[in-house]
Amino acid sequence: MLTQDHVKLFLYQILRGVKYLHSAGIIHRDIKPGNLLVNSNCLLKICDFGLARVAEMNKNRDMTQEVVTQYYRAPELLLGAKHYDFSVDMWSVGCIYGELLNRKILFLAANPLKQVDKIIDILGTPI
Hints:
Blueprint: H1 4-23, E1 26-27, E2 36-38, E3 44-46, E4 53-54, H2 75-78, H3 87-102, H4 112-123
Antiparallel strand pairs: 1-4, 2-3
Helix pairs in contact: 1-3
């Protein structure tokens, strides 16, 4: 059973791991539940650095757009941004946090355009 304490602990560990990567200038670019390993002691590790890259500071250089599993992809990537930064990882972490709280994928959609619609629908809803 996943308790609120588990959620807090997992989020804390994810954020520490992402902070470490970002402080080294690395954008993971594929943070998703499948790339988070948890052992029986609730120790979490971030894995699969196949899409990770050093952050590109030159905004005139294009970056790959097809990164991050669709459900955890930041809106700027869905909308075709040619340059992005560490925020794409933070969006993914937020999606995972929402998934941990709600026990379902937040922005489940068939394609990137429907994904944008879903984000707008959910984020445009008054609390």
